[in-house]
Amino acid sequence: MSPKQGGIHGYLSTENWQKEIATWCPALKLLNYYGNQDERRHMRVQIVNDELDFDVILTTYNMVISSADDRVLFRKMTFHYVIFDEAHMLKNMATARSVTRFPVWLNSSFKS
Predict the structure, then answer these.
(1) Which residues pair with 41 in a beta bridge?
(2) What is the CATH number of the domain that holds 78?
(3) How many structural domains compose the chain?
(4) CA 68, 73, 77: angle at the middle one, nearest 5?
(5) Cα→Cα distances 93→17, 30, 89, 106, 107, Å
(6) CA torsion sign, 65 to 67 to 68 to 69?
(7) H-only helix segments in the chain
(8) Cα distance between residue 80 and residue 94, in whole Å
(9) Residue 101 has pLDDT above 80, yes or no
(10) Which of the listed residues 24, 34, 97, 111 has the most CB atoms within 10 Å of its CB?
(11) Alpha-carbon span 97 to 76, nearest angstrom
(12) Selected residue with higher pLDDT from 90 and 85
């Protein structure tokens, strides 16, 4: 999703994170999981088929929850760390959003 498609906040957020990672951790291989449904579908296939080499997946909360396929992908992936820049989306666990959406993360396998 480009800024023209109404995703300006998420786009700017990921763009800023890209710059920070490039500045402070240039050796990290970054996958920017952001785009329209077709672009994300292509990335999902590449991720599942282990065709992409990455250390970090950069995305937004809205990209993770935007479709059933996106939610399934992130439920199945194993993460060492998860950082939420958009923590305000998750802070109130009693909200309908947290009850229906947060299990995407709770059902994931996290390694310490």
Answers:
(1) none
(2) 3.40.50.10810
(3) 1
(4) 150
(5) 26, 30, 10, 12, 15
(6) negative
(7) 8-24, 37-48, 61-65, 68-76, 96-101, 103-106
(8) 26
(9) no
(10) 34
(11) 20
(12) 85
Residue 50 has pLDDT above 80, yes or no: yes
In whole angstroms, what is the distance from residue 58 CA to residue 13 CA? 10
CB 52 within 8 A of CB 2: no
**∠ CA 42-25-11, rounded to 5°:** 45
Residue 74 is part of which domain span?
3-110
CB neighbourhood size of 88 (10 A): 9
Structure-token pair, residue 48: 């599942």
Bigger pLDDT: 112 vs 90: 90
Question: What DSSP element (H or E) covers 79?
Answer: strand 78-79
Asked if 10 and 62 touch (Cβ cutoff 8 Å), the reply is: yes
Report residue 103 CA to chain centroid gap.
14
Question: Is the whole model's pTM more than 0.90, yes or no?
Answer: no
User: Could you tell me the end-to-end alpha-carbon distance of the chain, in angstroms, rounded to an integer?
Assistant: 32
